[in-house]
């Protein structure tokens, strides 16, 4: 199943490659949280509908709620997809960039396996990878102490 999902992700990222925007445009806003080099290798795409794999196997694994969930954004490897109404929301970008760092640190197979198993065990809102992203985006939004997010993710996972 993970290979099927990764193939779908690679195909999706390729399909939208001409629409990708480099996150280095957020260098000033995210200074102290994300190194410029990290942002240069992360991208986002504004889409009318969030692309999600909808394989029968995912629903059989109990992930139907996740597939059907109305999300404002989703991250696949170094690229995240967001809806137009949140395209200027820095907190959404920050959150999705945490997931980019998680993908980078864990690698595709380990990230997908962990993310899926966390959602199956405790649900989306209690999944540790999501809780980490929400906690860090809250720290950014509340003008908390600046930390190097990719390093934090690397040391925490």
Mean pLDDT over the residues: 95
Q: Enumerate the strands of the largest sheet in spatial order, edge to edge or round the barrel.
A: 1-2-4-3
**Which class of secondary structure composition applies to the elements?**
alpha+beta
Low-pLDDT residue intervals, each spanning 5 or more residues: none
Intertermini distance: 23 Å
For the report, how would you describe the main beta sheet? Answer: 4 strands, mixed
The tally of strands reads 4
The outline comes out as globular
Number of helices: 8
Percent in helix? 40-55%
Oligomeric state, counting identical vs distinct chains: single chain
Radius of gyration: 15 Å
Characterization of the model:
By secondary structure, the protein is an alpha+beta fold. Helices cover 53% and strands 9% of the residues. It contains 8 helices and 4 strands, in the order αβαβααββαααα. Strands 1-2-4-3 form a 4-stranded mixed sheet, with helices on both faces. Helix 5 (90-106) crosses helix 6. The two termini are 23 Å apart. The model has no long low-confidence stretch (mean pLDDT 95).
Strand and helix map with partners:
Layout: H1 2-15, E1 21-22, H2 36-40, E2 43-46, H3 56-60, H4 64-68, E3 73-76, E4 79-82, H5 90-106, H6 108-122, H7 128-141, H8 149-156
Parallel strand pairs: 2-4
Antiparallel strand pairs: 1-2, 3-4
């Amino acid at each position: 199943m993970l290979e099927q999902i990764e193939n779908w992700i690679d195909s999706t990222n390729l399909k939208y490659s001409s629409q990708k925007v480099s996150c280095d445009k957020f260098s000033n806003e995210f200074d102290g949280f994300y190194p410029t080099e990290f942002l240069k290798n992360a991208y986002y795409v504004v889409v009318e509908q969030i692309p999600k794999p909808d394989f029968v196997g995912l629903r059989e694994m109990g992930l139907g709620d996740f597939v059907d969930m109305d999300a404002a954004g989703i991250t696949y490897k170094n690229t995240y997809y967001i809806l137009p109404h949140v395209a200027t929301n820095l907190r959404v970008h920050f959150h999705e960039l945490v997931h980019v760092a998680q993908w980078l640190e864990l690698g595709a197979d380990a990230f997908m396996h962990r993310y899926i198993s966390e959602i199956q065990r405790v649900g989306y809102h209690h999944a540790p990878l999501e809780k980490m992203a929400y906690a860090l985006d809250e720290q950014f939004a509340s003008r908390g102490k600046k930390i190097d997010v990719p390093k934090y993710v690397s040391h925490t996972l």
